């Protein structure tokens, strides 16, 4: 039997077993999220993004800048997405080119503002029973932006689920053809 922790009535104190307390600690971290600041300026040799003024930007780094692969390029190389957008229903197949254009436009806007938010792949899941397309992204914000753009432009059913201490997101958008 699990050992019970002391129960206190104060706000912010956890009530429950020691095992539950350990499970809910926010010590989980994203291995692609930097734990330190890079020396400035730093440049990604793969994509050319620069770490300047405490964040990754598309500014041009001087030739003397240190080179370090940015988290987005590492995610792409490792094929380890942070965002998953599942697109289901017959509407996607009927309007495939239009919806892919919307997805690519949303990705371009997000990437322009935030270099670490990138589109990784758009793939059709052949193993699914119903038509399903999977879009993967390097960040949670782009996946959410794509889901919001699909729902805003074409309505349908949108669900968003965050997992792994909000370092991953699964967005599901579905609509059947009219």
Record the SSE blueprint.
Elements: H1 18-23, E1 42-43, E2 50-52, E3 55-57, E4 66-67, H2 71-78, E5 83-88, H3 90-94, H4 96-113, E6 119-124, E7 132-137, H5 140-154, E8 157-163, E9 168-174
Parallel strand pairs: 1-4, 5-9
Antiparallel strand pairs: 1-2, 2-3, 5-7, 6-7, 8-9
Q: Runs with pLDDT <50, length 5+?
A: 1-28
CATH architecture of the largest domain: 2-Layer Sandwich
Q: Portion of residues in helices? A: 25-40%
Count of DSSP helices? 5
CATH level-3 fold name of the largest domain: Alpha-Beta Plaits
What's the level 1 CATH class of the largest domain?
Answer: Alpha Beta
Q: Major sheet, described briefly? A: 5 strands, mixed
Overall residue-averaged pLDDT value: 83
Strand order of the largest sheet: 6-7-5-9-8
The H-and-E topology, N to C, reads as HEEEEHEHHEEHEE
- The percent range for strand residues is 15-25%
Overall outline? elongated
Distance between the termini: 56 Å
Number of strands: 9
Strand pairing plus helix content: what structural class? alpha+beta
Radius of gyration, in Å, reads: 20 Å
Instruction: Give the domain tally.
Output: 2
